[in-house]
Amino acid sequence: MRALIQRVKEARVIVDDVTTGEIRQGLLVFLGLGRDDQLENGKKLIDKILKYRVFDDENGKMGWNISQAQGGLLLVSQFTLMAQTQKGLRPDFGPAMPPQQAKVLYDQLVEYAQSQFNHVETGIFAADMQVHLINDGPVTFQLEIS
User: Fold this and answer.
1) Closest among 72, 145, 63 to 113, alpha carbons compared
2) How far is it between the farthest Cα atoms of the chain?
3) CA–CA separation, 106 and 53 (whole Å)
4) Which end of the chain is more exposed for a tag (fewer CB within 10 A), N or C?
5) Which helix (H) or strand (E) holds 114?
6) How many Cβ atoms are within 10 Å of 39's Cβ, its own excluded?
């Protein structure tokens, strides 16, 4: 399981000209699910994201988590994060979880995130999404849980 997290000033997801999720300051999280990923590992990843200190504290250091910074969380499924890219000129999506199974796990992870944090927005699983963001910093990290 991989998460690409970006600290943003604002972010929104649009599907068919309709905004499906939108936050102001916070974290935009692209979430990739692998074939062997389980709910328990996903919960650990969500917990880490919520506790990850990437926001400036009163001293201008990355000392605050999303809650302390009063930010929002925008979760977007992105199977392309699981692609193998070491060989050739075309990504291999074999390591990604099959879509039907991934939708179930993604929905469970969104539900868990909503139970742990009060401002969670999402895209639409497997939709053609346009993601608009203003990256703050830029600050971007890749987190993995196996």
Assistant:
1) 72
2) 47
3) 24
4) C
5) helix 99-116
6) 12
Amino acid, single-letter form, for residue 92: D
Indicate the pTM of the whole model. 0.95
pLDDT in tens, the chain (146 residues): 999 999 999 999 999 999 999 999 999 999 999 999 999 999 999 999 999 999 999 999 999 999 999 999 999 999 999 999 999 999 999 999 999 999 999 999 999 999 999 999 999 999 999 999 999 999 999 999 87
Q: Any bridge partners for residue 123, and if so which? A: none
> Are 6 and 72 in contact, with CB atoms under 8 Å apart?
no
Q: Where are the domains of the chain?
A: 2-144
- Catalogue the active-site residues: 78-80
Give the C-alpha separation, 60 to 115, whole Å.
Answer: 30
